[in-house]
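Journal club prep — side note

Before the paper discussion, L.F. wants everyone to see what a predicted structure for a comparable chain looks like in token form. Sequence:
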Amino acid sequence: MYRPLSLFVGLRYLKAKRKNHFISFISLISMLGIALGVTTLITVISVMNGFEKELRARILGAISHATIQPIGQPMFEWRELVGRVEQREDVIAAAPFIEQGVWLQGRGSTGAFIRGVDPEHERRVSEIEQKMIAGNLDDLVEGEFGIVLGAGLAARLRAGLGDRVTVIAPTLKASPFGANPQMKRFTVVGAFEFGEYENDSALAVVHQADAAKLLRMPEGSVGGIRLHLEDMNRAWVVAREVSDQLEGVYRVRDWTQERGNLFQAVRTEKTVMWVILSLIIAVAAFNIISMLVMVVTDKQSDIAILKTMGARAGTIMRVFIVQGSLIGVIGTVLGVAGGIALAMNIGAVVPFLERIFGFSLFPGDIYYITELPSDLRSDDVIKFALMSLGMGLLSTLYPAWRASRTHPAEALRYE
């Protein structure tokens, strides 16, 4: 009896009487619609976050956060520069590299990128050592012309450990028969697999000294340095600051320039999915509007009696705002709980469905990812919950305003 009138009446209207079960059925459908929309939205966006996280880990395990390369000349004092760069707090490690597009020929042939590295420095800026499926990064010894191939590249060349692969570089050398491309035979000493197509099918790694000889670069020189940073989201800013500290003119590139289009596509897909799945919640919100309009029509005489007893228009509005908002709140709470539970256990749910229906969502012979990754983020959950609550609240305004405009005399004329 001590509850506010609007809350008391609004809660009573949620309970169905014998004559208006249909209205209560619509209320239930609206509640379940909001719950389903929020659950689906949280689960799908969490899975897409997991895909983005997995993709980023696989790609950035092979490429660097940023690269700094001198323009028009090789880099000679790279040891000193690496030491200076690594003194920065926002730089975890730096490593020299040489990179060039080449043509590889074994039992098969294909184009690829060859990267010359120093094994000691390389393991600090990439995860190639952890991704080795054959051989070891230390097998790249200066002067022995060993080569480590990506798994997909090795399959194209039909090359295994100990096989010889001819590397044809775009640099030319003079001969009695004219200018010919520089060629060198390398021995396959290892293979790696990052689980990302471009790295695995188009990248080969050799010792930087062997790469310099192949490309006819001055002895002891490299093509630039690669940076592994504390915060990869500041890669461009940090790389520019590093290049400004070094003498000379340098070209700066970061990971967003190398693979930024791929991550932008993932973000665009997330936005599109967010818009599409939000329509489920919007449909449920329209159901709330329909339900409240019918309730207002059904309760005309009750509203008129409340007004004759002194209830103000604002009180009448709050009655129906309470009724509609409670549907939105209950649906949102159920949706958030269901979404969190499903997103956290999606890795177990999908195999269960695959066993029941007899299909494989991610066949191992086609996809590198064989299970659904999920990355549940609290800010996404809060954002979706607030959006659902906002839609539920907005859907109550028109019916509540219409109820507050009821004229007691007209409503009670035929009673």
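L.F.'s comment for the group: The two ends are 28 Å apart (CA to CA). Keep this in mind when we get to the figures.
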